[in-house]
C-alpha cells in the first residue's frame, strides 16, 4: 500500500501509483472526504468551462472570461 508523510507545512505528496490510477496532473483539484479514521480522496470533476475548452480546443480559447462574466451578471 502506498504511503505518504505529512510535512511540517501539513502537505503530502500523492504517490505516483495513486496519481496514475486517478489520472491526476499538476493543477488538478482533489476532493477529500473524512470517513471515521480515514480520508477518501477523489479527483474533482472539471467545470463545464474546462470541459468545453478541452472539447472545442482553440475554437473556445479566450471565451472563458466572457462566459464567466455573463454568468456572474445572471446571478445579480
Structure overview:
With 76 residues, this protein is α+β, with helices and mostly antiparallel strands. 37% of the residues lie in helices and 16% in strands. The chain has three helices and two strands. It has a two-stranded antiparallel sheet. A hairpin with a 2-residue loop joins strand 1 and strand 2. The N and C termini lie far apart (49 Å). The model has no long low-confidence stretch (mean pLDDT 83).
Secondary structure: elements and pairs:
Blueprint: H1 16-22, E1 30-35, E2 38-43, H2 48-56, H3 64-75
* Helix/strand/pairing category: alpha+beta
Helix content: 25-40%
> What's the overall average pLDDT, rounded?
83
The parts where pLDDT drops under 50 for at least 5 residues are none
Strand content: 15-25%
Work out the number of β strands.
2
Radius of gyration: 17 Å
> Helical stretch count?
3
* Main pleated-sheet profile: 2 strands, antiparallel
Distance between the termini: 49 Å
- The helix/strand order is HEEHH
Amino acid at each position: 500500500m502506498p504511503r505518504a508523510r505529512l510535512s511540517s507545512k501539513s502537505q503530502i505528496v500523492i504517490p505516483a501509483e495513486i496519481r496514475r490510477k486517478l489520472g491526476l496532473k499538476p493543477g488538478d483539484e482533489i476532493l477529500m472526504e473524512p470517513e471515521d479514521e480515514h480520508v477518501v480522496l477523489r479527483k474533482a470533476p472539471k467545470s463545464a468551462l474546462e470541459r468545453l475548452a478541452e472539447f472545442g480546443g482553440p475554437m473556445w480559447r479566450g471565451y472563458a472570461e466572457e462566459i464567466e462574466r455573463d454568468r456572474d451578471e445572471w446571478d445579480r
